[in-house]
Amino acid sequence: MDNNRLIIPAIIIILILIAAVIIAFSGNNTFNTGSLSFEYPNAWSQDHVVGDFTNSSLYSEVTLTSNIPTSASPTSYIIIQMQKKSQGTYNLPETNEIVMNTTNSTVGTTNIGNIKATQLATYGPNVCEKVTIIETPYNYLILEYICPPTALNQTETDYNTILQSLMIQWI
C-alpha cells in the first residue's frame, strides 16, 4: 500500500522534470547589439560576430549555425549583415535580370514591420538560399539563409522567426 502512494508523486515529479527540459530547449535566444535586435531559436548558435551593428560601423555581421536533424545533418546557416550605404551611383543590372538567370528562383517584396524588403530565393537539388534585403536610411540590412534541401522547412521557419522579431533602431 505504501508503494502505491509513492507512484503518483514520482510520476508527477518526472512529468515536471520533462516539462522543464522541454521549456529550456524550446525557447528563443535574443541578439541585441547596436541598433539591431532579434530573437532566434535555441537550436541555432552564434558562430561569430563582426562589427557592432551601429550606424557608424561600415560593416557588421553575425552568423548563426545549426545542425538540423535530417538524414544527412549538414550545417545550415543564417547570416545577418549590415553595411553602410555608400554615396554615389550604382550601375547594376535589375534584380529580376539576375534572378531570372538562375534556375528555380523567385523574387518578391514583403513588409517587415513598416519597412519594405526585397526577397530573393533559389532552391536547388543541393542547396537552398533565401536573401532578404532591407534598406534603412543609413544602411543595407541583408538577412540570408543557406541550407540543404532536407533542412529547408525548419530553416525557413527559424528564418521567419528572426524576420518577425527583427527590430532596427535608427539614430
Task: Give a concise summary.
The protein has three helices and ten strands, in the order αβββββαββββαβ.
Task: Label this structure with key terms.
Protein Transport Mog1p, Chain A; alpha+beta; 171 residues
Number of domains as seen in the coordinates: 1
The CATH class assignment is Alpha Beta
What is the count of helical runs?
3
Q: What is the CA–CA distance across the termini? A: 70 Å
What does this structure look like?
The chain is of the alpha+beta class and 171 residues long. The longest helix is centred in the N-terminal third of the chain and has 25 residues, at 2-26. The protein has a seven-stranded antiparallel beta sheet. A three-stranded antiparallel beta sheet has the order 1-2-10. The protein has one domain (28-168): Mog1/PsbP, alpha/beta/alpha sandwich (Protein Transport Mog1p, Chain A, 3-Layer(aba) Sandwich), CATH 3.40.1000.10. The chain has three helices and ten strands. 26% of the residues lie in helices and 42% in strands.
Any chance you could write out the topology, listing elements then pairs?
Layout: H1 2-26, E1 28-33, E2 36-41, E3 45-50, E4 59-66, E5 76-84, H2 95-100, E6 105-112, E7 115-123, E8 128-135, E9 139-147, H3 152-165, E10 167-168
Antiparallel strand pairs: 1-2, 2-10, 3-4, 4-5, 5-9, 6-7, 7-8, 8-9
